[in-house]
Amino acid sequence: MRTLRLSLAWLVAFAVLFLAENRSTSGVLVITGDVVDWDPGRSITVANEQTDSRGVRIDVRAADDDGDRDAIRSGARVSVWYQSVGEHFPVAVKVLVLDPR
Predict the structure, then answer these.
(1) Do 32 and 97 form a contact (C-beta atoms < 8 A)?
(2) Could you tell me the residue ranges of all domains in the chain?
(3) What is the rounded distance in angstroms from the CA atom of residue 49 to the CA atom of residue 26?
(4) C-alpha gyration radius of the chain
(5) Distance (Å, rounded) from C-alpha 37 to C-alpha 42?
(6) ∠33-35-38 over CA atoms, to 5°?
(7) What is the CATH topology of the domain spanning 29-99?
(8) Are strands 64-66 and 43-47 parallel, antiparallel or unpaired?
């Protein structure tokens, strides 16, 4: 009986630590770079010095945008907060135009 309680205590402690770790990291990543391609309301492709020249394509259908959405165009400098949620492409949470160029 004592080993069962001890095992259950370890299991509960492990579960609590695992859940606390998952809550502290929301899974949101940020990329800042230049817009390579913009399909309004559908996707944005952003490239920087850490990506190849084709950049990273991100789905923007559910994204909040800070500022003027019309300022998003090829060559504009943006920051995109995004998550991988099991879709083909990462999904944007927020898009911020830094320099409309």
Answers:
(1) no
(2) 29-99
(3) 25
(4) 20
(5) 11
(6) 150
(7) OB fold (Dihydrolipoamide Acetyltransferase, E2P) (2.40.50)
(8) unpaired
pLDDT by residue for the chain (101 residues), tens only, comes to 777 776 666 655 555 444 444 444 478 999 999 999 999 889 999 999 998 889 999 999 878 766 677 889 999 999 999 998 877 899 999 999 998 77
Q: State pTM to two decimals.
A: 0.69
What is d(CA 13, CA 46) in angstroms, rounded to the nearest whole number?
41
Look up residue 82 and give its two tokens.
Answer: 């995004």
What's the token pair of residue 8?
Answer: 């259950």
Q: What angle do CA 21, 26, 28 make, to 5 degrees?
A: 140
